[in-house]
Design a protein that fits this description.
mainly alpha
């Protein structure tokens, strides 16, 4: 803390009148009170910032949880859609494989019939 009496005495020693010294120190102290932060002011500001940061952290954590939840939902939708598409493609491929297999079996049967006819003709 500022020792006002000490400064008033020093100003009087260098030639200020008691009233000038008193007014000078009073003006100087008013300027200091209005423009200079004290340790208490700094501590108060520090606590305010800590509280603000804590609040911001909770807000950000909440927003992160919301985004995470939204993304998880979107991922589930995409996964489900892809699984459905894969099943469709698999079903279509299986159908085409069955159709192709049936055609091959029919063609093999026809070929065997022709070969049997040729074999019988050769044996006669």
């Amino acid at each position: 803390m500022i020792n006002a009496l000490k400064y008033i005495e020093k100003l009087e020693i260098v030639g200020f009148t008691p009233e000038q010294a008193k007014k000078s120190v009073e003006t100087w102290m008013n300027l200091m009170d209005e423009n200079v932060a004290t340790k208490y002011d700094l501590r108060e500001l520090q606590f305010a910032h800590k509280a603000d940061l804590k609040e911001l952290r909770f807000e950000l954590e909440g927003q992160i949880k919301e985004v995470k939840s939204s993304l998880e939902g979107q991922i589930k939708e995409v996964k489900s859609s892809l699984e459905g598409q894969i099943k469709e493609v698999n079903k279509d491929l299986n159908s085409k494989i069955e159709q192709t297999t049936s055609k091959i079996i029919i063609q093999l049967g026809a070929l065997m019939s022709i070969l049997m006819t040729i074999a019988v003709a050769i044996l006669k």
